[in-house]
Structure formats: C-alpha cells, structure tokens
Amino acid sequence: TNCSRKYYYKWARAVVDQGRHFPLKPDGNGTVRVTITGKQGLAVEIGTDGSVCQRYVSNSIRRPKATFNEVCRSIIPGGIVVRYLKDGAVQILYPNGATSYYHKEGEYQGKWEVIVPNGYRFLRDPIKVAKAKKKEMEAGDDFKPQSKLSKAYIDKARELLEELPRISIKSFTDPISLAKIVQREDGVTMITYRDGSLLTTHADKTVILRQEGSGGEEDAGFVTISAPGFTKVELDIDVDENASRHANGLRIALSK
Question: Distance between the two ends of the chain, CA-based, in angstroms?
C-alpha cells in the first residue's frame, strides 16, 4: 500500500490503508479502506468504493456461535449481502427477499439455486451461461444488445434456467398496522409497511430494512443490515451508489 496508519484503542484496532484495491479505477488512483477490529475479533472493513466486509480474525470463545459457519460476509451496493461459508458455498441475500445459493457439492454441485420473492425456484448453470455469452460474442456484427425488459431478453434468460418446484408461501395483512406480510417455507419473511418500507428477515436471521426516501434527486432512502454476531450497517443509497460508480471510473454528479 502507499501508506498505512494504525491507531490503537482499549478494545479496538483500526488500520487505514490507501492503495490499489479491486476494482481498479481507470484513473489509476487507489481506494481507501479502513479496518476496525473489536475485542471479540470481528474485523469490519469499509472501503471508499462503497463495500463493507465483516469477518472474524480469530476463533475466540467470545465469538458468537451464529458466525461459526461463515468465513466472511460482504455488503455490496444496494444492501445486498454475500455470505462466504466454510464449506465453500456462497449465499447472496437480497433486500427484496430473493436469495441465490451456490452449491459446492451435492445434487446441484457447481450451480446457483435462485429463489425469487414469490417462491419460484430456478437452477442457473454458470458454464451454460458462459457458453451462451461466448456464442453471442462470436456472432460479431449480427449481435444486437437487447433491453433487459424486453420479451426477447426475458425469454432468452429463461432458456438458461432450470425450473424447480416452487416454495410455498403465506401472505396476509396485519389488521392493526395494515402491513403486508409474506412468509416463505424456506424461512424468509417480508413485511411491507404502508410507507413503502420493506423489512426482510432471511433464514440465517439476517435482517435487511429498506426505507424509501422522499423521491427527490438526492434522497433515494436508506438500507439497514443487521445479523447476530455482526455489526449493524446503515447505507445511504445515494452515497452508496455514487461511491460504487466512482470506484469503477464512472462519472458522478459533483453536487452529491
């Protein structure tokens, strides 16, 4: 790294690193990352690219049991949580209740199991998808990019997915708060409040709350992520998106 400063506190250690960090920006400048380690061994890394990573750097007896199966977890723009598990599997948790699970072994080895909010399940084969993309690139001038909202794009995407039996769901409205509640058989619960806020509790007890903003240019809302054994993370959606765009060399509005 270009520079490194370490600060020591009674129960925490913070490391500030400035240097090249993925993704590398076209301007050649590095990304600043701050790492804070607490007394229980939880290291929280915060990057100017909008990323947040949490991991335990020791097997301390103070470490909560709920974290034993995870190597680390990353929070990427939009409040999406990526869990890296000790058995080599990867699970992605979305604020809207959708999940993606990469199977390291078993019947679905090497494939992603995708569950959308309404309970529909699909298998996505990375090899099959890669071959389809290669075929499109080899088409050369005949290849025309399609909108992700177009019927042709959706039909093509479905061809790369294998449909699995749907997970049952229960939905009802709370008579007092008038919040709409959806419970899935896989342990995911989604609560939509009258103001548009969405509270999602995933099967591993990760809770993601997305609060809608005023709708103004600089007020898209906030996302709060919490889970047993991990520190709570609050994201300003506008700031988060701008940090990610800047880290990838894209233009952002200076007024923000």
Answer: 28
Token code pair at residue 50 = 């909008």
- Burial class from Cβ neighbours inside 10 Å (0-12, 13-18, 19+) for residue 180 reads middle
What are the pLDDT digits (tens) for 61-111? 677 787 888 999 999 888 899 999 999 999 999 999 999 999 999 999 999
Name residues of the chain where pLDDT drops below 50: 1-14, 16-23, 148, 256
User: Cβ(57)–Cβ(40) under 8 Å?
Assistant: no
Q: Which residue has the tokens 């959706």?
A: 154
Q: List strands edge to edge, sheet with 189-192.
A: 169-173, 180-184, 189-192, 198-201, 207-212, 221-227, 230-236
Residues facing 46 on adjacent strands: 34, 52
